[in-house]
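[[Local backbone shapes]]
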Amino acid sequence: MAKLIYVATTSLDGYVEDKEGKIDWGAPSEEVSVFINDLVRPIGTYLFGRRMYETMVSWETFEAVPDQPGSDFAAVWHSADKVVYSKTLDVVSSARTRIERDFDAQAISTLKSTSDHDICVGGAELAGQAIAAGLVDELRLFVLPLVLGGGKRALPNDVRLNLQLLDERRFNCGRVYLRYGLGA
């Protein structure tokens, strides 16, 4: 059975976007990019909200350049299936991608039980729905040494989670990777 994994970059005070909706403050260093690529390489399917998909879809036409930070992710992107949850998006501009109009917890549960590879949920709102439905098996958070003071929260309100620390790593740039299992 595949795991559903939420991967997010967050400020120390728990935001994935600042008050203006910007995420540029979270750009990874080369060291972090290499780690993230290795971390997500085994993912078979990505579940995205519309805004996260629109952020990530640039990888569809990204031209890989040897020794360029992040280039390796283009291959990761192309090798995975993608599902975009959106009521407004009419067409997708990437291969191996389909649109779902509504979050369906049972469909995601079925996907988990039938997938040979883990599944990654991207986008705080979609991840929040999956967390609230009890579908997320792991949180993989990249915490930056930065306090934003407001914005879009990485984790949903009104959900209590018991977490077990499974792994951690500190990067030279001050970013910290925390991997938690849920339900421990």
User: Anything to note?
Assistant: The first helix runs from residue 30 to 40. The beta strands are 4-11, 15-17, 45-49, 81-85, 97-100, 119-122, 138-144, 152-153, 163-170, 176-182. The radius of gyration is 16 Å. The chain has five helices and ten strands.
